[in-house]
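Each field is listed here:
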Amino acid sequence: QVRLVESGGGLVQPGGSLSISCAASGSIFPFDAMGWYRQAPGKQRELVALTGGGTNYADSVKGRFIISRDNVKNTVSLQMNSLKPEDTAVYYCNVHRAWTGRGINDYWGQGTQVTVSS
């Protein structure tokens, strides 16, 4: 079973920066995609950034956030810069596994709270 643990969340002022990390344990394969999602109160969980077979960012965070993955340590981090109040959400780490002919598996961490407020 894949286990994901996020850390690094906290309270940040608008315009500030914060880095959050995800440590993965269990069987993680190089072809697994790893990414960050977030969910604000009353909203659906949305993709923030994804790495694996390329790097993708939500339009709302392009130019501000940077995702990085260490395949040796099995970690994925998200450097968040120029934070805005609308970035406030619980941020979740995700591992997405798409097996050819074997279906799809998704694994999630418990989340870390990021609050952007003055």
About this structure: The chain has no helices and eleven strands. The first strand starts at residue 3 and ends at 7. The chain has a mean pLDDT of 95. Residues 9 and 114 are 5 Å apart (CA to CA).
